């Protein structure tokens, strides 16, 4: 479905994606996993033919750089946040994209039901909540039943509830012979939607693993929650990143996914750097993501 | 390792819509948006008000002597068109692409099965429709006022004026879209559009005047310099369409009449056509390589 | 001496050219005119070699006694005729005299001839021989109600005083203007009455050295000079309509001329004067409508003496490129009670100069100016401030006429605005009307038919309907899709 060979994308001196290769078979689902700035969005934009790049990307056998329009007709794309002419009414937007996707007939009610926003056809896009907008974006992506869905951090701007519902919806949709390429920095999303995971760090692919190994890499379900004074948190994150961890900030400290055999390594590194840790606890990834939302 | 040997590289049949269909769809959205935009409403009202003012005043001036029919109204309307239409078209064009880019809409649009050329042409077509609506509404209302005031103008004149105003609007829209394709920010694009308007309406003409006085430009150079300004090409063509002559424009006008005779309308047309096509082509080429974010 | 040059130069040139090429082309002309049988060697031939009075009408003339009324029945007569005795030659029905593209057609050599009601067509095209439809060489001729078509010169009066030229329709040949002849020409023919004629597509209607001529109710269009006076004094021109000529009326070296109640419209040749005056004296220009010409009135060295001020009053000068053009040295005109309406430039001094020697008011009444910006508080019809023309752009135009190319541009208004805002660069006023009128002087002649209001209204509705069509289509596009495809 997708084949990326030696994709390199630079913005001036900054390398956003360095020599990435991957392939995705029909019906398969692949997560691009990494922290912000790891290159997930860049790869997705290259797949959509939105950016110029070095290397080749084929979608459904079609070269994205040369035959982008046809390649994109195989893709349903959901962005991080739907930014579209928000003066349009929902049914107008559906009509517009149905035409652009060469869909002759659209059942508006069924389309909106399918993504869980029934009876919203007459509203203007700007009147929709964030979650509804994402569902509308999904409905638009599904127009014409494309064989490939490309999702870029689709839950990033949603609250806990909305996120859980959307992930559940995507889970239902992914099991229907569709390929799925999605970017996420959330372990729970990755584990519930992906079959394989491409782990990215600073534009480089660090590993490509089945989802089972991904969980193992994350520490068999362990996330170290470090309580630290606020001023030292950014320094700590920088330090831990430098040693191959993927720490994230939450309200009272830092969450660090840790491999099973290295649970104490972050503590040691911080101690060596004379950064004081007040307290710590070990969480499962699910607890960890919940704790992050509660503080967000 | 050829791509064909890999299962993932099998060519999957794709059925993207045709170019014309896409352009029409995009044009429809652009038109719908433009007709609802507040700025467009303001321009239309300004054009309408100025046009009606000119019609009313000029009809009252010559009309009271029974002297209608000598085309002074048309000169006034040409003046209004020269002032309002380029500003409207330039700013509309300038915000067309840059605004979408800034608000991230372009990203979502280009992620759909559309080509960038289709986006440019669709926008151009849609905005042209909006400009045409504005111009025909304004000049149509002027015609009605003139008819009511005593028919100071030939219908043929108003039709010519409307058609040529549309061509002028298209050329300025095209320039505006080039600005828009180049600019990073919508505000910069619109600012540049306004600056270009000032340049085309005032600065180049004043420059030509200064040049003529200071350098003693020969009529030929003066004529061609003036012809290269789309606003002046419009003006000369409009006068030519009314009188079949631009001798009202003095020695340079007479020179043009004597030298080029019947090819003059073609020359005006060529100038305007070049101003429509070339910036649009440039805009399309630049838009093809620019990142949508 | 200087004044004589304009006539003698062309005459001399014509003689020289004639002398040189005359013999060379004579055989060719002779061959062309072989139609009459060769044995009639003693027959009278005209300058083109065609035998005169050899046809039906000629025989009627030959047979007639002086004083007879000769009636010519309807028919087409291919002949050249000479009326050499006092006769009335009158067409009975549609009588056509066809000149067969050669020479003159009708020549009148006797006094007191009346020539009425004919269609005279197809003269030669020899400019040197001045091929004319009707040439009059004697006094007291009456040329009336004839139609002259496809002719080089129309009616040519040569030393033919006391003639009446009335009700003729004179149309030129379809030739380049340089190869056309004059529709009407008077040469040393005094006391002639020219009325109700229509002249079109010719060169000039011209009066040479002819005194006491009256020109009234004539129409001229698409000629070079509508009427042209050379050294012709005591001429009255009234109620003529001169449109779409190169120049309407051009007076040169003439005096005591009255131009009254004429309509001079759209005369737009390279100079394009409605009325042009060169070294003309004791003239009166009243009650004319002068509109849409390149220059309404052009004054060069007129009045020529101080005998009488030039009288330019009660004219409506409207929508011309320039209303009134003066050469710098012109003085001694009184310009009062005229309407200056929407001329692109109301008054122009060609080159640089002042108009201080001319008065723009008489008896404390000036002119009506559409660009007068003052007001009339005491409602006496006279503006409370003098009218001065100070526009920077016009000033530029007078200095550099080429800049007219930029007329009607917003840049023009910008310059005017700057000129008004900054006194330092404000030009000197060109002229000064101490008592501008606030209401127009009533028009002496009607302005013509305005275009139909109905068709303009229909045009307006048509244009507006395009706008609504665009609007409706913007809505319909989505709605049709909805009906066809989207089940809401």
Q: What layout of secondary structure does this protein have?
A:
The complex is a heterotrimer of chains A (296), B (293) and C (488).
Chain A: E1 2-11, E2 14-24, E3 29-33, H1 40-47, E4 54-59, E5 62-63, H2 68-72, E6 75-78, H3 90-100, E7 106-107, H4 108-114, H5 130-142, E8 148-152, H6 160-174, E9 179-184, H7 187-193, E10 196-201, E11 204-210, H8 211-217, E12 223-227, H9 233-242, E13 248-249, E14 253-257, H10 265-272, E15 279-283, H11 285-295
Parallel strand pairs in A: 3-9, 3-10, 6-8, 8-9
Antiparallel strand pairs in A: 1-2, 1-4, 4-5, 10-11, 12-14, 12-15, 13-14
Chain B: H1 19-36, H2 38-63, H3 72-102, H4 105-110, H5 116-149, H6 155-182, H7 186-215, H8 219-227, H9 230-243, H10 250-260, H11 264-289
Chain C: H1 5-32, H2 56-63, E1 69-78, E2 81-83, E3 88-98, E4 106-108, E5 114-116, E6 119-121, E7 132-136, E8 142-144, E9 147-151, E10 153-158, E11 164-166, E12 169-172, E13 184-187, E14 193-195, E15 198-200, E16 204-208, E17 214-216, E18 219-221, E19 225-230, E20 235-238, E21 241-243, E22 247-252, E23 255-260, E24 263-265, E25 273-278, E26 281-286, E27 289-291, E28 295-300, E29 310-313, E30 316-318, E31 322-326, E32 333-336, E33 339-341, E34 345-349, E35 368-369, E36 387-388, H3 392-399, H4 410-421, E37 432-433, H5 453-484, E38 486-487
